[in-house]
Amino acid sequence: xxxxxxASRAVFSAYVQKLLRPIEIVTASVLLLSVAAAGYLxxxxxxxxxxxxxxxxxxxxxxxxxxxIVTGLLRRFTPVQxxxxxxxxxxxxGLVGSHADLLGLTKFGLIVRVIQDVIRRSxxxxxxxxxxxxxxxxxxxxxxxxxxx
Length: 149
Prior knowledge:
Elements: H1 3-44, H2 53-77, H3 83-103, H4 107-120, H5 126-133, H6 135-147
Helix pairs in contact: 1-2, 1-3, 1-4, 1-6, 3-6, 5-6
């Protein structure tokens, strides 16, 4: 793979990890609070509240399987990176996030465009067109690409 494709994959995976972290935290918190509430209700109000654990266990299993699949696919998609490459990618992701508003794209829309560009494997993609519009992004993305060469 060439350096542009590796850099695009690294940027995509870092961006998705950044967006998934709050979802993971909220989901885990809701499940833990639900289990705590069901435990309290079953111990203090009525033993019949133990039936609430059945759907909670099913939801926990489903959420765990989805999380394992998503993280497994993301790890498989992420290229191996050195500390310097990770630092450059994180810096670039921060800059692109601030420029997403200028593009008129949502963060999800930007991710979808990056996925399409990585799959098509073309040299002219959303990242390169965005980078051409901004000198700051251009220099940062060149640093990311150069770190993969």
